[in-house]
Amino acid sequence: MSDSQRTDADRIRTLLALEGDEIKANTRLFNADRYDAVKAVGEDVHERNRTRAREIKEDAIERLPELIHRTRNAVEENGGTVYVADDAADANRYIAEVAEAEAAETVVKSKSMTTEEIDLNEALEEGGLEIWETDLGEFVIQVAEEAPSHIVGPSLHKSREEITELFEREFDPDESLDSAQKLTAFAREFLGDRIDNAEVGITGANFVMAESGSIALVTNEGNARKCASIPDTHVAVAGIEKIIPSVAELEPFAELISRSATGQEIPQYLSLLTPPVDTPTIDFNRADEPGSGAGDEERDFHLVLIDNGRRAMRQDDDLRETLYCIRCGACANSCANFQSVGGHAFGGETYTGGIATGWEAGIEGNDVAEEFNDLCTGCSRCVNACPVKIDIPWINTVVRDRINRGKDPGFDDLLVDGLVPDEEESGTPLRKRFFGNFETVAKLGSATAPLSNAVASTGIARKAMESVLGIDARRDLPAFERTTLRDWAGERKSRVADPDRRVALYPDVYTNYVQTERGKAAVRVLEALGCEVVVPDVGGSGRAPLSQGMIATAEAKAADAASALLPYVEEGYDVVVVEPSDLAMFRREYEKLLPAETQAQLDEGSYEVLEYVYGLLENGADADAVPAGDGDGVAYHSHCQQRTLGLETYTETVLDRVGYDVLTSDVECCGMAGSFGYKSEYYDLSMDVGETLAEQFEPEVDDRTVVASGTSCMEQLDALLLPGTRHPVELLDPAGR
Amino acid sequence: MSEGGAVTGSVTEFRQSLSDLDTPTTVVPPDELGATLADVIEAPAVGAELPFDDLSLADAPVTLDPSPSQLRAAATGVTGSRMGIASLGTVAVESRADGDEFVGLYPSRHVVVIRASDIRTDLSEAFDWLRAEFAAGRRSFVLATGPSSTGDMGALVQGVHGPEEVHIVIIRDNE
């Protein structure tokens, strides 16, 4: 392990210990509530809203210059002012000038990530102003002098006990604040006084509506309404990407935002304000006069629209989607790693969670994104969670690629460039190139097995792998088979005389060199169900290099795989894939790596193995041709990418149909996610995530066979639970009858 | 649906949604509004005059046009709402010169008066209404659903910067 890896490992361990419990409890609750809320409204309706929201965002970002112009006209017509700030310093200077013009002493704020982004509080405090955050979570963070750990719940890493201790230390209250009620009452009174006396109120804006110059604010506490209406001067601060055309386009977002964030159907307060509002100004200096003190002050409104890197993101084909983000935090809540360590590990200077890489790369730069980018394992569980369908794993991969390319070439490069067949520029870290070229390692390992396995498992080899490549010595390594799946299949004659269908079984790297048994089982199952099966000569899908951010190599692999497989498709073969992460390549990532037509053809011709078995049975194949389950129990862990593609149910249905009693895990991810779990600095986190899966299956292992669809899931379950996890297709293997 | 269109939202569903939010409701004919308000108000109370031609708070035990001290001291604030959402239990509070915003925010109990005929079925119908209101130049509303709440202090607590309890008075239509 290198020094920087050791520091990362220590930091993650510390956060797991200090914040892990609270983060876990809160994010998992939000996530579970999100699933319930989506089910309650109906998945079809939810999907329609997502599609519509995506369209609106695509269109609005496309037309952004025009919408900024319309917003300015509308706000000015209403009597307010619009200021478009180029960067943080520009925005802060303008806001400070507004406060100065109001002779402000106190500013109250409603929660706003955009003002976190520009460090507005620090800038105003330097000018001698007193700033108070009025969202209770944000207030806690302010008092603790910490950074938010979550986009929606800035303080959700803190327990009630910790907040009590913090408030009692900082405010020395008369009575103990030893309950959530007392803490809330204290904060309400403390902040209420400050809101009443503030000269300026600052809010964010979840949405800005160009046509009317309105803003929409989403809160549960009501503090945004107070900050916007009690001080005479209201400053709303928003990124330029928050603009949508009009109130008509707000509807799908009103449906989506709280449901995605916290599982609420609608927030407690969805405010549509078109400032300056008609609400009279309130004058506490004339506390006993009617009509709110008959305040005769003018209401003043400033909309500060912030660029700060966004216009450049708009021009960037890969980062542009980040601008569609509505800051709901669903990507964070659905992320297994985030659920364990939270945003203090999985985040940059402002934004946290899956989408944070896009934001930080665009706003701060790749160096800030690099600090946490590797915590995205590409499992893709956030893809369906995102209300605007942002391909978050892709953004993370692109940024990873850019970070790789930004590295200075090291002395290893000459050596490595000669040894590996990848397309990467010099400078790509050695370890990434090792994992990214796993296919080459597997080829060598298999050709020299069993010696390679024996050597790799020695203490000296493990120590060397740990110090040079950062592969954690606590992990079992995959054992390579001398006879590959393709060699085995090449020796066989087809067993099906008059096949109903013809299958090209895709020999992914793991199935071909390591987990050959599951490949053989797949061949026998498909034959038993009336298929002719061939195992074509085709290399890796590019998943391994893609995971390391080696996009050029992944592209080359994708082109090779497609050109090897498509002739089969054209001849009427169905491509059947055992490893879900490789099928996910064909269905999702190849959209980015291959010409559209090629991708579509391969996608349409490819199936996950149990999805295919399901199809065969539906079309009349005889289920009695495979062994019956006889009511035996199965504990089934699907695979993250397989679930994202909606394929989990085929395995469940097939196993159920042949007579198994199936229990399916309900965790988002096993925590291994490919190479991630092998890396020494992430080992502890990977095991922490896996613990939840282990806990669910532990009581079942005596009564149920544990099966998993993905290679890395099998490895993780073997490490956590017991040796001997199997692929579902092995249960159907006639040879195992 | 446009202003004054057919009644589409059901009072029963509206009450059920509110009941799920632990928000009590009372349904009364127009002429019982004053007596009902006297029941559901905890004194001292402040109010913003109702946005309906035929209903008024003039005879109710509430202070209209309250001073800042009265706002701060009030236990109850009464406002009207011209739109409710049956499926959600939501009411629209308008930012008007009568000060609905403050009346609905400062006191710990918020009493909202709404006409049964102003209840919409769902958010989609509510947006039809909002679009019509925006077109008519009325463009500042808060869609409020249940009391103010937070989970930031380690448990769900109601009554943060807004009311701790909400009571909805539904005015049955004249038959």
TrEMBL record, chain A:
Swiss-Prot/TrEMBL GO biological process terms: lactate metabolic process
InterPro entries on file: 4Fe4S_Fe-S-bd (IPR017896), 4Fe4S_Fe_S_CS (IPR017900), Cys_rich_dom (IPR004017), FTHF_cligase-like_sf (IPR024185), Helical_ferredxn (IPR009051), LUD_dom (IPR003741), LutB/LldF (IPR004452), NagB/RpiA_transferase-like (IPR037171)
Record's keyword annotation contains Repeat: yes
Record-level Gene Ontology MF annotations: 4 iron, 4 sulfur cluster binding; oxidoreductase activity
Domain called 4Fe-4S ferredoxin-type: residue spans: 367-395
Pfam annotation, one family: Fer4_8
Keywords: 4Fe-4S, Electron transport, Iron, Iron-sulfur, Metal-binding, Plasmid, Repeat, Transport
Transmembrane segments: none
Coiled-coil segments: none
Superkingdom classification of source: Archaea
Protein's name in the database: 4Fe-4S dicluster domain-containing protein
Source organism of this protein record: Natrinema versiforme
Phylogenetic lineage: Archaea, Methanobacteriati, Methanobacteriota, Stenosarchaea group, Halobacteria
TrEMBL record, chain B:
InterPro entries found in the cross-reference section: FTHF_cligase-like_sf, LUD_dom, NagB/RpiA_transferase-like
Signal peptide span: none
Pfam families with a match to the protein in the record: LUD_dom
Keywords on record: Plasmid
Domain of life of the organism encoding this protein: Archaea
Keyword Membrane on entry: no
Residue intervals of the LUD domain: 71-171
PANTHER family: LACTATE UTILIZATION PROTEIN C
Stated name of the protein: Lactate utilization protein C
Naturally occurring in which organism (per UniProt): Natrinema versiforme
